[in-house]
Amino acid sequence: MNGATAVGFWQAVGCSVFFAAYILPRKLSRLSVHEYQFWLGMMVPIVAILVAASMGAPFATGASNTLLAFSCGIIWTFGSLCYSSAVDCIGVARSTPVKNLAPMFASLYGIFIFHEYSIRDPQSFAMALGGVAAMVGAAFVIGRASAPENETAAAYDAALSTEARRRAFLMGWVFSVGAAFFYGLYSIPLKTAVVKGEMNPYSANVFLGLGIFVTSWLWFVLRERRATPAWPGRKEAAISQLAAVLWTPGQILGTVAMANVAMSISWPVSNLSTLLTVAWGVWVFHEVHLERHIREVIAALALYAGGLALLFFAAPHGKV
User: Fold this and answer.
1) d(CA 207, CA 157)
2) Whole-angstrom Cα distance, residue 109 to residue 33?
């Protein structure tokens, strides 16, 4: 593995830490999904601009690349709205494994759209697909653990009617799948701009952030019929904007990783965020009884380790 590829691999690992953390503030917020997204979206471009300026990245880029990066923000916002809604419905530990099907979609895009791996190199092709399958399998295994008696999400809220809980459970899974779809989809314009269009990855995230802000604001206007939400108070504003402060560095790391290692490798590696997020669900929010699900945890750890090893060995052979 050459230097750039190794750096890209470990950047993707670092990205997973931020991606695991950014959804946690949602559990602490009392804002509606639309208000929460508004305040989160406001902070993303600010963080992205500060990082880009510190790295000396140019703010003037070609129109086509700018539009591609901006479109990433639009797509990601719909993924974020779905993810926050899923957490409200079924909790962090249950929604996150399904949401993290996104790297599977991104990997398939990388292999079949950007031709990062080819059947002409069957060993590397098989390792890449096997690594993706193992990471996705691990997400589902650990997602089987549950502790509804400690869950505060709507699907397990005893104060709601049986019908309301059933509806929340169904919608939680629908929103989780929606999050996976949108979170995987924005990888296509992002790679096209950064790798194919040679756009500076720090610059790309500025326009991605602006796309998030504009889309979050327009969504709020359409849903609430108001120009802006009422000031939620310092605590609620800080909680939602903390999510942006946590997510944006992860997104930047993931974009830089994509420029160094094949997308079909970097995105599944970021899937480690599932393990970290579910760990928060276990020890902080008590969504999962670890002692009742030790087999699932051990199996998931084995799958994660195997998947990471396969992706590590496949990484040098992928076309960026």
Assistant:
1) 40
2) 29
